Amino acid sequence: MTPERDETVGVILAGGLARRMGGGDKPMREIGGRAILAHVVERLSPQCGVLVLNANGDPSRFAAFGLPVVPDTVAGNPGPLAGVLAALDWAAQNRPQAQWVVSVAGDCPFLPRDLVDRLHKARRDGNATLAAAVSGGRAHPVIGLWKVALRGDLRNALVEEDLRRVQSWTARHSLATAEWPVRPVDPFFNANTIEDLSDAERLARLVD
Fold first, then answer.
1. Which pLDDT score is estimated for 93?
2. Per-residue pLDDT tens digits for 128-137
3. Quick one: CATH architecture of 3-201?
4. 36, 26 Cβ separation under 8 angstroms
5. 116: helix, strand or coil
6. Do 146 and 132 touch, CB atoms closer than 8 A?
7. Which residues are registered as beta bridge partners of 132?
């Protein structure tokens, strides 16, 4: 593992309400006989010094994965920025040598195996403080690289300004992007509906 990877905390954002799937924990739905979350963990874990899961409610439902479960530190389920903030706070308290957090959605089973390296490269090349993923010209704002030192700024935006939209906050800082192709499979395909699960079963045969 490179020093940069070792200094990066990975967070899987698993706090969505999965309304289009009828509720419940979307990352626990299965593709290829395994939970979507298992696919995400398998792809992201080797790229980070440590991996945590952002989720609210009873953490024991994720016990089989052996990951620290970090709940939101801002009340009211304000969305993915709260999950990012929770991970930034966790990193500052538990991995003080870590300067970065990489966040991914818990419903993306085909994440690229070079995600962290390429986000860091984009950040360095652009002399930026944040980096986000793009595929096929489409931005994925919650799949990104966040500087731990910005956690105070993010907390203020969430608590004092009631800001919720990821891109509204990232627009305040220098943001680089790294782009991936969408063939043969979009690496940021996310399973939002029951129909998406069927598509994912088919696509899983096309990825490494």
1. 97
2. 999 999 999 9
3. Alpha-Beta Complex (3.90)
4. yes
5. helix
6. no
7. 144, 177
